[in-house]
Amino acid sequence: MRIQSEFVEGFGALAELGPAVSVFGSARTKPGTPFYEMGTQVGRRLVEQGYAVITGGGPGAMEAANKGARDAGGASVGLGIELPFEQGLNEYVNLGVNFRYFFARKTMFVKYAQGFIVLPGGFGTLDELFEAVTLVQTQKVTSFPIVLMGTEYWGGLFDWLRGTVLDAGTVSRKDVDLLHLTDDVDEAVRMVTESDEQVAPKRPE
Ligand SMILES: CC(C)=CCNc1ncnc2c1ncn2[C@@H]1O[C@H](COP(=O)(O)O)[C@@H](O)[C@H]1O
């Protein structure tokens, strides 16, 4: 069955990856823009700290993170998705897997990463972000730091969660505290890798 084979293929391709961080962000972020540059720096810094970089393998922020990772000589993973307006994996991916199903692909982002760094993005990015927060909140995954980058971009969402949503009692303080926010690349990388000390021993070699 196609669905099953996507999981098998994904698990097989990523089994030997070692520690990794998934980086998300808009497919529409253009090269030369500040957020593209931020993505490149995130990819580079993660590799310098000994991490593989996993992205959705597409253009924009994904491409930026893959570029940074590859240029720094690291593992640059792209988990591509078949879309009607297919663009293929970006040129900076050095380990690529293609998926037809978003849900199979999303499993890989969480299963093979120690945390998420989320650059400014749209519906796709929000989907990935909130799936991860839900998994952490419900303790389906543990010690999984999630860092949003771009204080101005995410600030409104942050305030809304800590105001309206928290006040309504639909989330707890502990839940909103799962999300970190920064503009600083080193700080973001530190946040996702620090708690890895608790996570690392649980991962198979
Ligand atoms: C120019 C364009 C729209 C290309 C679309 N090509 C894509 N290729 C790969 N992953 C994607 C693509 N679009 C959305 N995604 C997924 O959704 C996220 C970005 O969606 P968005 O641009 O924020 O909503 C990415 O992290 C990725 O996992």
What does this molecule look like?
This protein has a 7-stranded parallel β-sheet, sandwiched between helices. Helix content is 49%, strand content 15%. The chain is built from 9 helices and 7 strands; from the N terminus they run αβαβαββαβαβααβαα. The chain is an alpha/beta fold and 205 residues long. Residues 198-205 have low confidence and may be disordered. It has one domain: Rossmann fold, CATH 3.40.50.450. The protein has helices at residues 2-14, 34-48, 61-71, 102-111, 123-137, 151-168, 173-176, 185-194, 196-199, and strands spanning 20-24, 52-55, 76-81, 95-99, 116-118, 146-149, 179-182. α2 (34-48) packs parallel to α3 (61-71). The structure holds N-(3-methylbut-2-en-1-yl)adenosine 5'-(dihydrogen phosphate). N-(3-methylbut-2-en-1-yl)adenosine 5'-(dihydrogen phosphate) binds next to β3 and α5.
Total number of distinct structural domains? 1
What's the total helix number? 9
The share of residues in extended strands comes to 15-25%
- Can you count the beta strands? 7
Tell me the radius of gyration: 16 Å
**What's the end-to-end separation, in Å?**
29 Å
What string, H for helix and E for strand, traces the elements in order?
HEHEHEEHEHEHHEHH
Bound small-molecule species: N-(3-methylbut-2-en-1-yl)adenosine 5'-(dihydrogen phosphate)
The largest β sheet comes out as: 7 strands, parallel
State the secondary-structure class.
alpha/beta
CATH topology: Rossmann fold
> For the largest beta sheet, what order do the strands appear in spatially?
4-3-2-1-5-6-7
**Share of helical residues:** 40-55%
Query: Which geometry do the CA atoms define?
Result: globular
The CATH architecture classification is 3-Layer(aba) Sandwich
Give the averaged pLDDT, no decimals: 91
Low-confidence stretches: 198-205
Instruction: Output the CATH class name.
Output: Alpha Beta
